[in-house]
Amino acid sequence: MHESADSHVPPDLEELVRVRQEFEGLMLRYKFGIDEMMTKINILKEEFAHLHAYTPIEHVESRLKSPESILKKAVRKGATESIDDLAARLHDIAGIRITCSFISDTYRVYEMLAAQHDVSVVEVRDYIKAPKANGYQSLHMIVEVPVFLSATTHLVKVEVQIRTIAMDFWASLEHKIYYKYDGAVPQALLDKLRDAAETASRLDLTMEHLHDDVLALDAENDTFDDPRQERRYDLPDSILRLFWPESALNPSRPAEPMTDAGWAPVQI
Predict the structure, then answer these.
(1) Of 159, 220, 246, 256, catalytic
(2) Cβ atoms 165, 203 nearer than 8 A
(3) Which segments constitute the RelA/SpoT domain (predicted)?
(4) What is the pTM of this model?
(5) Which of 151, 236, 241, 264 has its CA 20 to 30 A from that of 121?
């Protein structure tokens, strides 16, 4: 009787295959976690734009750490006992970055995400109110979101970074400099980076004040036009006439009786 090929697989190889499958499943869950959060963010962005003709979200991007980067960090943190241990101790495997125009927008986006009933806020680090020593500013939140698979449900952690355009520009430059010098950045450049961070912070505050002034002037002069009214007229006339009388579409013309397809009463 011939033995199956599997019976000749060394035990250590079987373990390697098992760990690999577990790790691939973990990566897939984190990918789905990003998908879930991106859907929520995009829905909030579109709804906010519809209701307020303005959105606090300028740009959104996501990233999933590479297996190599994950394993290196796991070794540094000593999170190598199991795949579950790795997932429990590493909170930035899945990441989303949201860029806003103003500082106030960063907190508005945070509040909208935190209010989602199926999103649990695990940790918040406010580097806007308390910047890092190198000048870095951003609002970080670790959230947990359920991922529903065919047979199981997993709570997946996703790191969400919320920052202004100025903060994002500074962080991008800082990352490039640290990468170029492999972390050993000359002190002169570090000093210039801190100065640039302060400049970016002042710019954010100036833009925030300008934004507030514009809103105040609009309110005082009553010059704000609700784009929702304008959007109503973007619809074809044939559709609009089903819902609004002719006088509403063209104030210069008196209202006319509608047919039985309309809602206005007909004079008899």
Answers:
(1) 159
(2) no
(3) 62-185
(4) 0.77
(5) 151
Whether the CB-CB separation of 130 and 67 falls below 8 Å is answered with no
Closest to 48 measured CA to CA, from 115, 137, 1? 115
pLDDT of amino acid 224: 53
Sketch out the chain's domains with CATH numbers.
12-167 (3.30.460.10)
3-class DSSP string for 158-193:
EEEEEEEHHHHHHHHHHHHHHHHCCCCCCHHHHHHH
Question: Which H/E stretch holds residue 31?
Answer: helix 11-52
Q: Which helix (H) or strand (E) holds 204?
A: helix 187-221
- Is 159 assigned a catalytic role? yes
| Strand 153-164 with 139-148, pairing | antiparallel
| Pairwise CA distance, residues 38 & 4, whole Å | 46
Give mean pLDDT, residues 116-135: 95
Helix (H, G, I), strand (E, B) or coil at 247: helix
CB 199 within 8 A of CB 191: no
CA distance 75 to 95: 20
Contacts of 107 (CB under 8 A, 6+ apart): 139
Give residue 219's pLDDT.
Answer: 74
